[in-house]
Predict the structure of VOC family protein.
Amino acid sequence: MSDRLITHLRHVALAVPDYDRQHEFYTTMWGLTEVEHDSGITFLAAEGSPEQYVVRLRRAEEKRLDLVSFGAATAADVDALADRLIKQNVRIISEPGEVETPGGGYGFRFFDVDGRTIEVSSDVAVRVHRRLEEKESVPVRVSHVVLNSTDINRTREWYEKHLDFALSDTLIHPNMGDMMHFMRCNPQHHSMAIARGPHTSLHHISFEMRGIDEYMRGTGRLLRGGVRKIWGPGRHLAGNNTFSYFLDPHGNTLEYTTELELLDEDAWHPHVYDFTRPEVSDQWGTANPMDEFVAAESFNDPDRGVFVAPPV
C-alpha cells in the first residue's frame, strides 16, 4: 500500500462538561501526562509515544467527540489528500495550513460521511519520549479508536474510497448481520474500527500497554480505584489483542490493550467472525459474557458534534 497517504492514528480530542474531573481521571487514574494546557484545553501525552499528545480535553457545555487526528508522512501528502477530497466533494472544514497545537505541523480538517471532524497532519515535531520500564502500568501510546455508525457498510466504504483504509476483519451477528469492521491504515490490524450503533458517537479509545503484565497491573489499578469496568480482562480473536474496557467520568469507553496483531498486508485476507461464539469475543474465557447490556455501554451518548466543527 505504498500509495496510502495516511500513516497512523495521532490523537483523539474530546469535549467535556466536567473538565476538572476528567483531567484528574486521565492524569491520575488512566496514566497520561499533561504536556500543555491553555484556556480550558489540556493536551495529554502517553509516556512511550513520540506523538505530542494522544488525548485532547476541551472544557465545553456539551459532551462531544471534537475530532480524530491521523498522521501523514509529508506536507505533499497532506496537499494531495486535500486535493483528492475536494474533487470528491468531501466537506472541507479548513484548507491545508499551519497547525497551531503542540508540535505544530501542517494539516487540514474535513467531515467524514457521518459528520465527524477528521484531521490529517504532517511534520509535527517528535515529542521526547522514553521506553517504559518493567511493571510500569501506564499507556505506551494510543492504539486505535472505534466509532459508532448507524450504517457501518456506508462508513466503511467511505473510508476505503477517500482515505485508503483497508478492511482487516468483520464481526457479524447471525441474526443482525455486520456489527463491526476493523480498518487499517498501516500493518497494525486496526487503527480504527466501525461499530454498529443506534447513533453516531464514539465507541471507545484504546491504549497500548508495555506487555501482558503491565496490562494486568493497569487493569488491577483501575479496579482498585473504583473505576467502572465494562468488560474484561480477556483476549479478542480479531486482532488477537487483550482487552479491559472502562468508563471515564463522562461515560466514554476506554480500553487498555496489548499485543495487537501486525499483518502481512500482501498476504492478508479478511475474516468474518460470528461474535456470538464465546471464543471470538474472548479467547481466554476470562471476561464477563458479552451481552446486550455490555454492548449498550459503548453506544455512548449521541454525538453533539455531527457536522459541527469544533471551535479549536
User: Anything to note?
Assistant: The mean pLDDT is 97.
